[in-house]
Structures are given as C-alpha cells and as structure tokens.
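QUALITY CONTROL LOG
STEP: pairwise intake check
CHECKER ROLE: data steward
CRITERIA: each record must contain a sequence immediately followed by its structure tokens, with no blank fields

ENTRY 1 OF 2
RESULT FIELD BELOW
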Amino acid sequence: MATPLSDTPLSPLSPLRTIAVVGLGTMGTGIAEVLARAGREVIGIDLSEARTGEALAVLRAATARAVARGRLTEEQRAAALARVRTATDLTAAADADLVIEVAPESYEIKHQIFRELDGIVRPETILATGTNALSVTRLAADSARPERVLGLHFFNPAPAMKLVEVVSSVLTAPQAVAAVTDLAVELGKEPVAVGDRPGFVADGLLFGYLNQAAAMYEARYASREDIDAAMRLGCGLPMGPLALLDLIGVDTARTVLEAMYAESRDRLHAPAPILKQLSEAGLTGRKAGRGFYTYEAPGSGTVVPDALTPAEGGTAAPGRAVRSVGVAGSGTMASGIAEVFAKAGYQVVLAARSEEKAQAAKARIGKSLAHSVDKGRLTAEAAAQILDLIAPAGSYDAFADVDLAVEAVAEDLEVKRQLFGTLDKVCKPGAVLATTTSSLPVVACARATSRPQDVIGMHFFNPAPAMKLVEVVRTVLTADDVHATVREVCGRTRKHAVDCGDRAGFIVNALLFPYLNNAIKMVQEHYATLDDIDAAMRLGGGYPMGPFELLDVVGLDVSLAIEKVLHREFRDPGLAPAPLLEHLVAAGCLGRKTGRGFREYARR
C-alpha cells in the first residue's frame, strides 16, 4: 500500500506528470528528489520497506539542507515532500506516465521488472531503464511494447549532476525520446542523445580510462597516491581514477567493463584482474570501507593510513646540493621552467642556440612576471629580483658550474641525444642532468652521456609556472641520490612530484591519450557528435574540458605523435591512432594554432 509523505498537493507541470522510480538506492532516491523538487508527482517503489523508509529520511534531510542553504523555502520543501509517496509493490506504478527503473545492474532483475510492468502500466506509459552497462535494446525487445522503452541515464549524485544521457534503441519511438528529453530540460538537466552501447558516451570513455589506471597500479608502475595526484594535478580532474573507482564501487566498475568488453572485444575494456580480485574479496570501495584505499568506516569518504600508505619523510637517500640551475631551450616550456626555478630562489642560466633567442626567452619571462604584478600576485620589486636571477646565454658552455641542467628543447630524440652529449661535456662532475620529455625514453638520453646514473626525467606540464605537477622519471640506471635531489628540488619549487618508471606516456599521457583516442573513434563511428561528447565529459565526468576542446588546444599533431609512441611501446591494437586523427593532421588541421582542428576558430 502506498504511504504518502505529506498531504499538500501541487499541480503538475507537463505531460509526464506522475513518475514512478523503481529502486530506492542512492541513485533512485536522488532522482526522486530531482523530480519532486521540479513539481512532479513521484511514486518511489522498492521491495524493501526499510529501504523506502531510508529513502524518505534521505529526502527529508536533503531538502532540509537545501532550505538551510537558501535554495528552497520551507513552503517549497513541504510541497516537494508532499509530492512523494512510496510503495513496496510495482502495482503502485499503474497510473504513472513514466517509470524510471534504477534496480541493480543485473539483466535478470531488470527483465523481471519490465515484464511485470508490462501488465501494470498503461499502453502509452514510457518505461526507462537507468542502466549504464546493459543493453537497452535487449530489455526493449523483451517488452510487450518495445517502442516505449528507452534508457535514461542520470549521474551520481543526481541532484547535482547536470548530464542525462537519453538512450534510444533501434526500436524506440521518436515521440518517447522527445518526451523524456523535454522532461530532462524541465528538470534543469542537459540531455545528450546517444545510441545503445555499453557505457554510452560518458561511462564508455570514463571506464576505459579507469580500467587502465587500475592496470597501471596493478603492474606496480606507480603508487595509488601518485596515479591519483597525477591525474588531478596534470589534467584538472576532481578526483583521481583509483579514488573514483572506490566511490563508484569496484564491483560496479567491473560489471560495466565486462559489458563493454563483451561488445567491443577491445583489450582496453577487458577488466584489469585487480578489479576481480578486490570484488571477490568484498573490497568494493567506500561502501565496504576498503577498496584501493582504506576508509574510516563503510560508507565514509575519509581515507585512513594503511600498510600501503607512503611513509612520512620521503626518500631515505640524501640528495645533492643544488644552488644553480641551467635550463636549455628558448620556447614557452623552457622560459616557464626557468621562471619556476628563479621564483624558488635558484640562480638560473637560460641557454639557447643563440644569444638573441636566450634574450627573447628572458623577455617572455619578464612579461609573465609583469602580468603577475598586474594581478597583484607579486610586487614589482619581487618581480625584478626574480628576473635578475636569470642569466641568458647563447651557448651551453654557460652550464659549466650549474648543479642541475634541465633540457626543454624539441620533442625529437636525436635532438635530445645530441644535447645530452653536449651537457655531458660541459657540465661539472656530479651535476644532475634532466630531460622534460613527455613521451621519449629517458634512458636513451642517459646513454648519450658517460654518466647515465646522473640522468633523470622531470616532466613539467604547460604552463610550468601554474601547473603543480612534475612527473619524476627514473631509469634503471638513475642513482638514488639523483632521484632524491630532484624530489627535493620539486619541493623547493612548490611542485608536487610523482614517481614513475621510464616507459611511454609516464602516468598522465599514458592514461589521457587513449581516452582522447576513444572519443575520436566515437565520432568516427557516428555514435555521437563532438558537442555531445564534450558536454558528456564536462557534465558527467567533471572534466574541465571536453576531449575535442582539449585535443584542439594540445594540437592534433602533438596528440598523434603521442598516440603513435604509446601504440609502438605497448603494441595494443586498441591504442592505434584513430584514422580520423591521422586524416586531420595530414590535411594540416592541427587545432587552435592553425585555426582549424575538430572545430574551426576565428583567426586572431
């Protein structure tokens, strides 16, 4: 029997006036809140009476918080709660205009619900599944009226997340799609129309990335803390991938990936074995109190130290003294790195192939510092002192007395090898030699010298003064005190150092570029539009930029070069650059720098 939460009625707003939500877990309860606050009559259905009671308590608490924050009045709260009633039997959905199923990700469970609803709801009632992993087409085909079945994929937490994926099968009637799309807009959401494939757009791209992060951790390439910090600081993501897997649920992620792999047979979607191991051990993430991390209690988001937590105090080996730094190069990255070191108080030699180029690079730093003065971040006196620490030079001979030499020249292995040969000759014994490469083997630079133990990778991110991350890349030959030196330097320059081994892409690019490549494949296969994919990842994944916005900023030629390096290193067919990317680069459409990439840009 249905139990009203309140007796205050309110007139509905649209043709989809009464909406049943089947399954009152976190997602179902969130959807019910969104609907009720938007003026819909809501029937919350769950077989568990305890669950319906919990859902009502959550709704009361959530709406009370909204009042406290000034987002609802007490009258609006009372009216919203009045529009919600609960039941423990599907027959309560008999009068619904729309039913949204948010049951566990099991085809058998969802099929049973849809089969029962066929005998309960009116012929015109739309049936929506909230699945993000199972086939909407299969559920529709088993329904008595497949034309009214579609997917309506909200994102967690439903009250806060703007994205809703509207999923059509080949059987879905356009009128049904139009009705739920209009509803999503009225709910204040941004609907994206997609076809039926596991993961749809947002999760289809997100879960492949999460899977690769899990595999990277499983291979002991980098620590969980460093993987997560790298993606937060290097890509501006709100959460690292392993922390996000714990939030989503390791078992849920495994289910989604299994469904994706069953359809794509792409090895990038084959669940990393660690996901199975954690799931079967009951270590499913926050909800269990332990997953990749350990939490204060089941359901808590507070991470507590465990046996894998790094010890305080950093590396055991003492580093070498660094008072002066040489930066080789005259481009944006070189001048940015020189600015970083000068701000930290180091004496900096900025050397280029000519005095003129070095002076131009120092002038670029001067403009950057002047901008900081204009913004109130520096005083004019401090900016002048920083600039005085930078000595431009037209020859690498000026590096004779530096303690650390950092190259930031063209991303060309032969160019870098020649430079390291020169550094080997001009730099004093004991100087640390670092490369800023983002994709080339550090050990190849090391072997160009007579002191490979002194060579290490320091991958800064652009713009270097603003970006906090530095990937510290040890080769099998790098000495412990060289590693310790670079970690200490990162600390003094207020950068967050993450450790990783010498393989293509390091952490960030190895996880970022396969995701970008998969987004290109979606467009290439006409699955979704550029705009819909970008919106899906900004709104559903919390990315600061959609993949195509980012590709055009990075440069399609740069992106293609990195994709080729990853494919060559890992030999995985799924990493082969998308033909569409190759075609655009061949046509000279390189992104913002040429005025056209995936989109066209106004010429400056």
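ENTRY 2 OF 2
RESULT FIELD BELOW
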Amino acid sequence: MKNALSMYWKYCFLLLSLLIAAEAVSQNQPSDKKPEIKELNEVLVNGNSIEQRKKEESLNVETVNNSFIQRNLGGSLMQSLQKLPGVKTISIGSGGSKPLIRGLSFNQVIVVENGLKHEGQQWGADHGLEIDQYAVNRVEIIKGPSSFIYGSDAVGGAVNIKPLPLPSQNTFGGSVDLTGKSNNAQFGSSVNLFGRNENWFFDSRITTMDYGDYRVPTDVVHVYSYAVPLYKNHLRNTAGRELDFHLSSGYSGEHFKSVFYFSNVHTKSGFFANAHGLEPRNVDLELHDKSSRDILMPYQQVNHLKVSNTTSFQLGNHAFETQIGFQNNFRREYSHYVNHGYMPPIYPEDMYAPQDLERQYNKDVWSFSAKDEFRIQNHQITVGSNVAFQQNEIGGWSFLIPAFTQFNAGLFAYDKIELNEKWFLNGAVRYDYGKIKMKSYYDWFQSPVSENNQTELEYLQRSQDLTKTFDSFTWSIGANYNPGKLSLKANLGSSFRMPIAKELASNGVNYHYFRFEKGNPNLDAERSYQLDLGMEWNQQNWSFQLTPFVNYFPNFIYLNPTSAHDIYYGAGNQVFEYEQSKVFRYGAEFQTRYYFLKSLSAEIGAEYLYSEQKSGSKKGYTLPFSPPPSVLLGLNYEPQITFLKESYFSVDYRFTAQQNNIVPPEKKTAESHVFNLAFGSKIKTGKQDISLNIQIQNLFNTRYLNHTSFYRLIELPEAGRNIIVSMKIPFLFSR
C-alpha cells in the first residue's frame, strides 16, 4: 500500500510539473478565444440546470452525459458508470453486468429507459442488462429508496436513462461511433441518423459489436479444487456478439408531444466453459482453444424488444403525460446434455425441448402509466398511477424457476414546496398492490421415492400452484437548504418490494454457482427505511460533496447457505434457501475536486458501506456481495490547444481495501491497486467536431480480484490491461 501510494504521488508530482510548464507555454501562444468562450457558456448553462435540480431534490442524484460515458467506456453501460462513488457492478465477463448501488443489486435496483421500467429476467447472477450504451444520452443515478417514484423494486435506488433530446428543427444528421478494445479484440460500431422538419422527427441507431475471449493476468484458475490451465491467458468461450436497433419518431408542437420508441437488443455470449455445469474437467480444451472468437457451448442468447409511446400535453396549468409500453425478454441457455441424479443417461428423442436447450425464459410485459403535474401557489404537485402485467413462460430440460404471471398497480402523489430561494420541502406518498401466480411443474423424468420400506418411481413435483398478493403504503419527506455556496439536504423515506418468483418458488440447481436454490413461499414483502443526508460546497476552484446514509430492513430477503445437500439432482450440491432477516446498513460517499489552474485539477472519490444481519441464522454476518471500501485518486489536465477542443489527459489510481467481512461460502478478498490512463480531444472540422478518446485500463496489468464479480468464487481475477480507442464522427445538414 505505502509503496503504491508513494509511486502514485511521485508520478503525479512529475506530471504536475510537466503540465504547469506546458500551461505556461500555451498561455504565450496566440489563439482565437471567441469559439472557446461560446463553448464554455454552453457548459455553464447545462451545469446550472443539473445543479439547480440537485438543490431542489432531497434524494441523492448523480447525473452523467454521453461525454462521460464515452470517456469511461467499458464493456457495458454499468461498467462505464462505476467510476461514480457508490456505484459498482456485478460483472459477467467482459460484455455484461448489472448495477450495484450502495451494495444492493438484482431486483432491489431498477433501470428505467425512456420512461419504461426495464424488465429482464430479474437479473439472476448470470443475467446482465440488455441496454445499448451507445444509445444513451444522459443517465441519472438515484442512490437510496425510490419506491414512491417507481414502485416496487426501487429499494436500493434507480438508474434512469433519459430520452434523447429532440433534433433541432429543419435538420438532418447523425454520427458514426467506432470502438476497438485490445484485451478481447473487440470491434464495435454504431451508426445514428436523425432528422426533423418543423414538428415531425425521427432518430435511429444501429449498433454492432464482436469480441473474443477476454484475457486475465494469470495462466491458471482453480474451479473449486480443480486447477484449470488457461491457453494464452484467455478465458475460453467468453466471446460474444451484439446487434441492436433503435428508432424513435413522433410529433412535437408547442403544447403537445407524442413519441414512439422501438428498440431491439440481441446478444449472444459464451459462458466460461470451465465454470459452467457440474463437469469442469470434461471441457474439450483443444476445441475451445482453437479460436478465441468462436462461441461454443455453453452459451446464452438474449433478445430484448421494447415498444412504447409517450404522449405529453398541456391543459391550462396542468402538464399531463401518459405512456403505453410492451416489452419481451427472450432468453435461452444452451449446454451439452449431462445427466445428473436420476436423469436418463441418454436424452429421450420425444422430449418437448431440444437436447442442447438447458433453459429458456420468455417474458412479456404490458404497462401503462399516467401523471399530472401542476402548480398551486408555491406547491409543485405531481399525481400519477401505473399498471403492469407480465407473463413468464419457461422451457428447456433443466428447471429452476416456475412459469408465472404477475400484476402490479400503484398510485402516488408528490409535492415540492418552494418556501423561498433557500428552502425547499418535499413530500410523497404511494400505494402499491401486487399479485403473483405461479404454476405447478413436475420433472420430465422419474426418481425413486422410498416410503414405508417401499421404493417407487415418481415424477417429482418441483413447484406447486401458488398465488400471493402484497400491498403497501410508502412515504418520503425531505428538505433542502441552500444558503449560498453550501447546499444541505435530508430525506427520510420508506420503500417496498414484492418477492419475485425465484425467491418464492425456485427449486433446482443453479449450474453457474454449483448450488441448489430453494425458494420460500412464506416470504413477506421486503420493507426498508432510510435516512439520506447530503452536504455540498461549490466555489470557483474547489468543491466537495458528502452523502451519508442509514438504512434499516425489518425483513431483508437473501439467499442463505445451509448444511444440507440435494440427493436428486446431482448429489453434492449445497442447498441454499431464501430467508428473511433484520438488516442494518450505513455508509457514505465523498467527492472533492480542486483546481490548481484553470485547466489542471485533482479529484478524490471515496465510498464506505457497512451492513450487518441482526437476526436469523446468519445473525452478525454482513450481506452477500458487500463491496469493500475504496478510494479513487485522479489528476486531470484540460489544456487549450489550437485546432482542438475539450482536450483532456487524466490518470487515476483506485485503492480497494480488503474485504474480510463476508458471508460463507464467500471468500475474503485482498486489497487491490489499479491505475488507469485516459486522454482525448475533439478535432475541429467545420461545424462538427470529431471526438477521439483513448483509455488504458489496468495500466500495469495487475492481478486482482473483485469481490462483487460473478466469477469471484472461483478465484478468477479481473481483466488484464485493456487499451480502448473510441471515435465519434458526427455530421449535420440544415435546411
């Protein structure tokens, strides 16, 4: 630790000296100041609107734009956002991940895209988000309970992907994005076209990606007790493909706007061959190592389709908005048939599912929402409702979760009161109702059952017909005080989450984790109470932000490892059961930035989280996948260079502390030290500017473990050095 910090500060001191000298030289060079002044004015306007919202909202909200995403481009949207304190990912290889906000993930955090709640397969351990990050313009990260806004599942926070801004009137244009990554030899491109006359517009995008097996800084990993050699440091069969299409079109007038959104995201990606199923020794190494770009079994195919319409109109003092949406998530997992337990050794020819189709999930979701926003004196009031119905079907020869249908409905009211320029009060109430109906399921093969000293063969029942209903009131109150350069906020609220089908009725082997998962039909709705505080200071050359929180769950739902082992579906699998316990959590995020010069700044971002179970069989333990404390130190240089705009050079060092506070069978994770470099600029080319960004992630090819990674349990280190080059070429024609 001391050696790494010493090296970092020496490097920063040397870099600081060089940059100060370069700044002094650049200030003596003649240049045209007018274009730069205009650009700075635009940045100030955008920044002020974001800052104004933070001063009026009592929830902790972080907002980033597509420029931030491009500068920090990762393998998925959430990997591109994890530079923000309090935001982490549960990564699944190089092309998939899901959000982890303040240690909460899965169905405790929701993602909203263009106003529509993203409904995948409830983000199992191996399920990433089907989101095209090239189609993302602006993202809001809400830390803390957001149930009064979004309803069930927003216990831990929300990732709100805002709609694209409408094209300017009488324009036609677009852009071409090109990306290359060295670690997994990825090639990606995204083409955007948009146009608009006075009122009618369209915006379209096609994205394609192709990547190979990614590399790690080790030549052997241990899948539990079995040593697996890696050919040229590649994780065999982690290659993938992606093809996405987006289209939005509609009408925008002075008091009326209606937009139709259509998107289809299709991915195909392999699972690390030696860590899937119960036979890691039986992988055909010669076949898998023949090419680093082929996708062999085991692999997954996911297609996510979304269609929606958002209409808004003004009537007097009222602003109405309605949204109708449909989405389909179709996921298939393919693997060689291997009989476990009492499954027949030879796959039957008359089976309803193909021999290689291990699992299939097909989810349809229909939704409708409406809201009305109006002012009464100094009150800005919003009332609204939402309704959603989903139908989930299953397939394949392996069973984990039953088919089910689900209905949700909610009503809410929100009031923001502006007492004066310095004081804002916020209050909200919401009522939610939900009903889930699960279907029975029997094994397609017989198993011996012994009773009264007699053994008979039976088709075992894995799930029963089960109907559960849940309802809840949630509330939130908050205050903001803005005396000047200082901004203070506080918010106290409750939130609610319905148990999902996996938690209520799962009953099978999760081959990705080598364990048997068993649901609990007696689970209650999960509830949470949280106090959020915020303090922010802004002046000309220095700013900081501190956001502590305290969180209590009277009945947190978690997957608990037991001492039992299953006997029917591959003897030796440890049984994990869903249970509930009281949980107490607290933590904080801290950010600060200091400008040495107009173009030279340093930043620090830190986060800390503590959680403890206060009841149940794991009383005294933390929660699974609890992220350890971490600190990000960064140095940023943004010089003014002739013929270039928004040039930058940055170096950052992330120290992640060891994580010894674990829940067995989790393993302790050692501390890590990772350096990253990034630089880029916009090249002036007439009316449009070409953006070029280069990153070097994991600069020193450090071998380290990520405690929240999907593959952490098999001691798999994070990806090695990765050079990422991205270019954006815009074009625009005005009529």
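INTAKE CHECK: passed for both entries
DESCRIPTIVE NOTE, ENTRY 2: DSSP finds seven helices and 37 strands in the chain.
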